[in-house]
Amino acid sequence: MLTDAELDPTPITAKTVAIIGFGNQGRAQALNLHDSGIAVTVGLRPGSARAEDASAHGLRVASPADAAEGADLVFLLAPDEHLPGIYRAIEGSLRPGAALGFAHGLTIHYGLIEPRADLDVIMVAPKGPGAALRRLYTEGKGMVALAAVAQDATGAAWPLALAYAAALGSGRAGAGVLRSTFEQETVSDLFNESAVVWGAVPAILEAGFETLVAAGIDPRLAYLECVTELKLLADLVAERGIAGMREAISNTAEFGAASGGHRVVDEAVKARMAAMLGELRSDAFARALQQEAASDYPALREARRGARASALEAARLSLKGEPDR
Which InterPro entries match (predicted)? Predict the structure, then answer.
């Protein structure tokens, strides 16, 4: 982990940066850079509802092509599935020897974008949502980030990537910058999203809830037991690690965890995880994401409808005293 003591901020101090997009990561990164004294222009499509917010924070707003023209570093921070089209639209505006940046390696690793040979291609990937990145920065803290270089046309890509991470606040005490690669960041991130935190954990919560309800337990109690305690778990793991978390709970809970966890997550589950990892190493996921976007997200819309209509969501609303949607 590199911290501010090892990071040189000067490679970016006199640079002009274009941030394309002002959503989850774009807003946070643009504001953090601006507050670090970096000249930032936000690239947004004409008529974007986010332009007023960006301007209100003292940021220059232009079209993506105009923002990219003359910029030393252009960071693409729109949703992954839109980045190939954005790159095609701005490629002619990128000056020779400019740097192209990403917060996720997907489009480069899977070849959805093939940057010009004269461009540096870097990645700085904060390991958390944009809102948290911004909040930590304003509190004088930082968020861990990965840095990587896919193409070093000028010989200055690595110093620029690390300086960018420092300007985001990722080198501050309690955080740090880890050198990585586009492949490792992409595959591990997709694996986490599909098979661990964002994929498997909610599925386990739902399965536990459904098992208790099917056995006659009040759905509200099933929700409290299987879902609401997740925050307690996450807080304890973040503070103490998994070993420390187990030491912090009651003997009853610890004994139940020790005797039950491996029966749910057994060797068959690990084998399926390994199979999923193998699938993610190919470009099948990236291509499917492109097709999903081109079809106006039918699978995502159906999944959202199913989640809103579930018995688990009804139990949550009942506990909050809200009517069913």
Answer: 6-PGluconate_DH-like_C_sf, KARI, KARI_C, KARI_N, NAD(P)-bd_dom_sf
Domain boundaries, the chain: 10-179, 192-320
Give residue 251's identity as a one-letter amino acid code: N
Q: State residue 301's pLDDT score.
A: 95
* Tokens of residue 30, six digits: 């643009």
Topology annotation, domain 10-179: Rossmann fold (3.40.50)
Q: Identify any residues that bridge with 126 across adjacent strands, giving them in sequence order.
A: 145
Q: What is the pLDDT of residue 283?
A: 86
pLDDT digits (tens, 9 = 90+) for 251-265: 999 999 999 999 999
Confidence of residue 325 (pLDDT cuts 50, 70, 90): low
- List, in order, residues 6 or more apart from 98 with CB less than 8 Å away: 71, 72, 73, 74, 119, 120
Residue with tokens 């960018």: 164
Binding-site residue ranges: 189, 193, 225, 229, 250
Give which of 109, 273, 98 is closest to 180, Cα–Cα: 109
Tens of pLDDT, residues 208-261: 999 999 999 999 999 999 999 999 999 999 899 999 999 999 999 999 999 999
68-88 confidence digits (pLDDT tens): 998 999 999 999 999 999 999
User: Could you tell me the maximum CA-CA distance found in the chain, to the nearest angstrom?
Assistant: 67
Annotated binding site for Mg(2+): 189, 193, 225, 229
Three-class secondary structure of residue 152 per DSSP: coil
Residues within the annotated binding site for substrate? 250
- Give the Å distances, CA to CA, from 286 to 26, 53, 105, 180, 282: 21, 31, 11, 20, 9
Q: Catalytic amino acids?
A: 104
Q: In degrees to the nearest 10, what's the CA dihedral of 79, 303, 274, 113? A: -20
